[in-house]
Design a protein that fits this description.
Layout lengths: L1 H6 L5 H44 L4 H26 L7 H34 L4 H4 L2 H19 L1 H4 L14 H4 L2 H40 L9 H33 L6 H23 L4 H22 L18 H5 L1
Helix pairs in contact: 2-3, 2-11, 2-12, 3-4, 3-11, 4-6, 4-9, 9-10, 10-11
């Protein structure tokens, strides 16, 4: 009988489960690497921004710090999913999967909402430069951040509060479409992502409009022989294009495919959305520190000082106190460029 099944081309169940477990472990390894990169990129930025905010008292950087913390939470949440994938065969309960994926969803929602707050802060600084310090107070910043995390928690844990957004599945894997009903993805798209994307577009396009207006004014007041090609406006356009392009390319394919999947189940397979498009969205948390933090000179200086301090500690530890700086060498006082600017 076994020979007939083999001749008929029917695969043995243990072969199928072995292939599925191997693919799951490979996916877990990819998620673990991605989560590690996200944490490694955002945790140092969060530390540096926290020190700089404590030193300078800048309120606007609190939104960038919150973005780094939200992205770090995304990496932490994805690390849990990676651990589940690497632990196959793993048979979690329905409640465990719902809470696991709700935590991932709320972390991603907090990251996206943090991008909107950063855009609002920059838009306010450009549109109301003389009233910015009066408008952006510590109380208002705290209320905005509190509202952000409450909204992210509500969006992420909505299936916990509304059971009809859950999908009862006997599948062994914790994933979006095994846990959440497609109507929940449609709700997220209509109430969360689409308004955020529209507001993101509007804010940065309006900032670009202001930059072009300033550039035209500068060109008009310049002497005729000094008229240039507007490098500041071109730089602003490149920056806006990079910010909008990365955000849109990261998350829009996932949400569009999820909505289309609900209307046409045969159009997009679940594996394409969960194994590729979702990874593309998670990559946005890896790009955010590069786009919003690492290009700032203050952050670069603080990171270089932090790396130098860690290097000295490692050398001292490896040399048992005999490495640089020497025992008879007096340490020179280090003065930060940020202190010189203050």
């Amino acid at each position: 009988m076994a020979d007939e099944d083999q001749a008929g081309g029917t695969a043995a169940p243990w072969c199928v489960s072995h292939d599925v477990a191997t693919a799951s472990r490979a996916m877990g390894a990819i998620l673990a690497v991605l989560a590690s990169l996200i944490l490694a990129a955002n945790v140092p930025v969060a530390i540096v921004l926290l020190c700089h905010i404590h030193r300078s008292g800048s309120k606007g950087l609190c939104f960038v710090l919150n973005l780094a913390l939200a992205d770090a939470m995304v990496g932490f949440a994805v690390m849990g999913v990676a651990a589940d994938e690497l632990s196959q065969p793993f048979y979690p309960s329905q409640n465990f999967c719902v809470l696991r994926m709700a935590f991932v969803t709320s972390s991603c929602a907090a990251s996206i909402l943090s991008l909107i707050l950063v855009a609002c802060d920059r838009h306010l600084a450009i549109r109301k430069p003389f009233h910015y310090l009066q408008l952006v107070t510590a109380l208002r910043v705290g209320l905005c951040l509190l509202g952000l995390w409450l909204l992210a928690a509500v969006l992420g844990f909505l299936p916990v509060f509304i059971p009809r957004f859950q999908r009862v599945s006997n599948h062994w894997k914790c994933s979006f479409f095994n846990v959440f009903h497609p109507s929940y993805m449609l709700t997220l798209f209509c109430l969360g992502f689409f308004p955020a994307l529209f507001l993101f577009f509007y804010l940065y396009c309006d900032m670009l409009k202001v930059a072009w207006g300033h550039e035209r004014h500068i060109q008009q007041v310049k002497p005729a022989g000094l008229a240039g090609g507007g490098p500041a406006a071109r730089a602003a356009m490149r920056t806006v294009a990079a910010l909008i392009g990365c955000f849109t390319a990261s998350w829009l394919p996932f949400f569009i495919a999820s909505v289309v999947q609900m209307l046409c189940p045969e159009c997009f397979p679940y594996r394409l959305i969960e194994n590729f498009l979702w990874l593309l969205g998670l990559g946005n948390s890896l790009l955010n520190p590069l786009l919003y933090s690492y290009w700032q000179r203050d952050v670069q200086l603080q990171l270089s000082q932090l790396a130098a301090a860690l290097r000295r500690r490692v050398l001292l530890h490896l040399g048992h106190g005999r490495c640089f700086p020497g025992r008879d060498t007096k340490a020179l006082p280090a003065v930060s460029c940020l202190e010189l600017q203050d």
